[in-house]
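re: ur question from earlier - yeah i can do the single chain one, its not a big deal. heres the input i used so u can compare w yours
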Amino acid sequence: MSVYGLTGGIGAGKSTVANMFQESGIPVVLADDVGREVASKGSDGLAEIVRSFGPDVLDSNGELDRRKLGTLIFNDPDRRRELEAILHPRVRDQSRELFSQLEQAGNQIVVYESALLYETQRHTEMRGVILVTASEGQRIARVRSRDGSEEEAVRQRIKAQMDDEEKRGLADYIIENNGNLQALRREVDSLIEQLLGR
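and the output i got, formated as tokens:
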């Protein structure tokens, strides 16, 4: 079985592409979902987060309050690294377990969708990496229409992520998402044919 990484910056359309893969019958493992699972109520991941960051990061139900945790780490690279040291190894182990189950179920290809594929060095484990990219103007417009963010706030979020040109240099397949959904679907379908034909 081949595992392909899928990544892209905020507003590039990575989630839309992931959905298209799933609609085509190719399983997609979402790093964010795995991250939520390894820090869910009762998990050792959550217990370790509470030991490191204190009980204030829990909501009234004893679950992780991601917003509170986010404000603690947002402008503090040391605290962010501390959180990553707790989460990333668990996400890696859990996703590998999911890959193994999908392989046993007879899947030929699996896609692993992660915004931080390069930053976490997971791209080194992949058969290939698919980068979804779009112009900055497109990305800003998409994020603003999705969650009503101010333009400057979106620009800051784009700046905080790894540079797209750097990602392009590391990617094996690039999906340009500057057109409409039909154009994107054609690109994805063409890539799926290419991957299945290997």
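Strands lie at 2-7, 28-30, 109-113, 128-133, 173-176. not sure if urs matches, ping me
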